[in-house]
UniProtKB/TrEMBL annotation:
Protein known as: D-beta-hydroxybutyrate dehydrogenase
Gene Ontology MF, one: 3-hydroxybutyrate dehydrogenase activity
Native species: Boseongicola aestuarii
E.C. designation(s): 1.1.1.30
Entry keyword annotation includes DNA-binding: no
Gene designation: bdhA_2
InterPro entries in alphabetical order: NAD(P)-bd_dom_sf, Sc_DH/Rdtase_CS, SDR_fam
């Protein structure tokens, strides 16, 4: 039976791969993203997936996007609250209040707005799965990335609480905590972190891999695999869990 799947931040990176993989399984998929160019490119290459422009940090924009989905589909089975931003890379004394708030707004407020809607819809239908994207930075902390780490820790608190609130209604809530994921976003982050720390980007890149037991980065497909498993019957009793996909971080030496 075809599932109804929503992915926020779905026009590129992890979100795009999650959307693609569920669509390949025959599921009905809708994504939103704040980047108009990315949405246009995604829509052109994925004609069977609904793609809309919406900034997850803006309540009005999310209301429009999610209300349209609810009206068309009548409900939803799987929601990935995936949208996020890396935020500034700097020592905390060099981070402006506006940059701090912007990072938390996209990562944490965006998750709240998405989950707020999903909770209402799923509670009413008595079933559903919410998956939030956190990070190993939300488990270890991350020097020069305090707004990002703070938001990702907050996402785990939100996930744990919603699992408790929604479990009696038959709704599961989990989080995926990716490590260093190959792709354009991490390349931008490496450049920002290099400027903040004065270290060479290649040195930082190597440190991420060396800080894991498997000595590796992970891919968007690795994260999508975890999402597909969480949505499968094999994970029907899994809720309130932070599933870390990172090659096992031994130390956050990056």
């Amino acid at each position: 039976m075809s599932r109804r799947v929503i992915v926020t931040g779905g026009a590129s990176g992890i979100g795009a791969r999650i959307a693609e993989r569920f669509a390949e399984l025959g599921d009905k998929v809708a994504i939103c993203d704040a980047n108009p160019d990315a949405v246009a490119a995604f829509a052109k290459s994925h004609p069977t997936i609904s793609a809309e422009i919406a900034n997850v940090a803006q309540a009005d924009a999310m209301d429009v996007f999610l209300s349209a989905i609810e009206e068309e589909w009548g409900g939803v089975d799987v929601v990935f609250a995936n949208a996020g931003t890396g935020g500034p890379a700097a020592r905390i004394e060099d981070i402006s209040p506006d940059d701090w708030r912007d990072c938390l707004a996209v990562n944490l407020d965006g998750a709240f707005l998405t989950c707020r809607w999903a909770a209402r819809v799923m509670r009413a239908q008595g079933s559903g799965l919410i998956v939030l994207t956190s990070s190993t930075s939300g488990q270890w902390g991350h020097p020069h990335r305090s707004p990002y780490a703070t938001a990702k820790w907050g996402i785990l608190g939100l996930m744990k609480t919603l699992a408790m609130e929604l479990g009696p209604a038959g709704v599961r809530v989990n989080a995926i905590c990716p490590g260093a994921v190959e792709g354009e976003r991490m390349e931008r982050m490496l450049a920002n972190q290099s400027r903040a720390s004065g270290r060479d980007p290649d040195t930082i890149r190597a440190a991420y891999a060396e800080g894991t037991s498997l000595r590796t980065w992970v891919t968007a497909d690795d994260i999508a695999d975890a999402g597909i498993w969480l949505a499968s019957p094999g994970a029907s009793k899994v809720t309130g869990q932070a599933l870390t996909i990172d090659g096992h971080t031994e130390t956050n030496s990056a």
